[in-house]
Amino acid sequence: MFESVTIKDIAKALGVSTSTVSRALNGSYEIGTETKKLVLEYAEKINYRPNPIALSLKEQKSHSIGVVVCEVANDYFSQAINGIESIAYNRGYHVIITQTHESFDRESANVKHLLSRHVDGLLVSLSAQTTDTSQYKYLLDKGFPIVFFDRAATDLNTHKVIANNFKGAFEATETLLKAGFTKIAHITNSNNLLISRERLDGFKATLEQYGVEFNAAYIKHCNHGGMIRDEVEFALKELLNMAEPPEAIFSGSDRLTISCVSILKAMGIKIPEQLALAGFTNSDVVQLFDPPLTVVRQPAFRIGQMATEMLIKTIESKWPVEEFSTEKVDAELIVRSSSQKI
């Protein structure tokens, strides 16, 4: 069994008190130069490392942040996590990452586990199934620091960092309309998510502005967000088998966009000749697809950084934080040939 070296072990070996060792390791001016040098050299020699659990109990802080996301393999979230870590580690915080796989039960279990690890705060992006946010409300009411990013809870008063989903959806739909497509379908995530509702609102607003009638039959919700391939395939087949099938699709999330490309290719549907496509994704390889994809790309890395900065500021505040802000960051539309009429 692994046994770590303690301050007591160092004190015993050097014939000094544990308080002397502790002060020397902490750089206290109360300890003489020779004693400090002796302790530090011995600690280095035996590869002494402070026990993080003991430190957390002493300081009532673990210097760790819990992160709740749907899936690390998702391009958006992997980039956001890189942003989170870039700030957290520089500020002396470790990051513990958990995945919900779009399950409310798993999200609740993850939050409970992170709290049992005594994290100092949470960065949360809600699962597609989550409608009950009472566990977060309870924690916020107790003054526990939580920041939502990307998928935020509308009913909770805390810091949030989100993309301008309405604008991103508007611009993607507008690109398809300007290319000459009027029969446009929208494949999106669960309606439980605020991002789904905002992107659908942006889609509808564009149609209205361009005088195109909204067709509710062209809207398909995939409640697992593209994580179940059959769900996306079923939605696409329903659309393509309609009496008046769509000419183009606007897909509302990272995984849905990539799934649509893969499934349409397997079905022998040519993009954009038979069906044009534009959608949200942060994949770094979509310009290499045949054809290259028109995408709405979110600044995921920056969103992760902003959320982490807000959380650490809340954690380290000497006074209870009572004023919160929602930061809305613009996404970037990148037009390529998948949305062009041929």
UniProtKB/TrEMBL annotation:
Keywords: DNA-binding, Transcription, Transcription regulation. Signal peptide: none annotated. Residues 5-59 form the HTH lacI-type domain. GO terms for molecular function: DNA-binding transcription factor activity; transcription cis-regulatory region binding. SMART domains: HTH_LACI. InterPro entries: Cro/C1-type_HTH, HTH_LacI, LacI/GalR-like_sensor, Lambda_DNA-bd_dom_sf, Peripla_BP_I. Residues 6-49 form the HTH cro/C1-type domain. It holds the Pfam family LacI. This is LacI family DNA-binding transcriptional regulator.
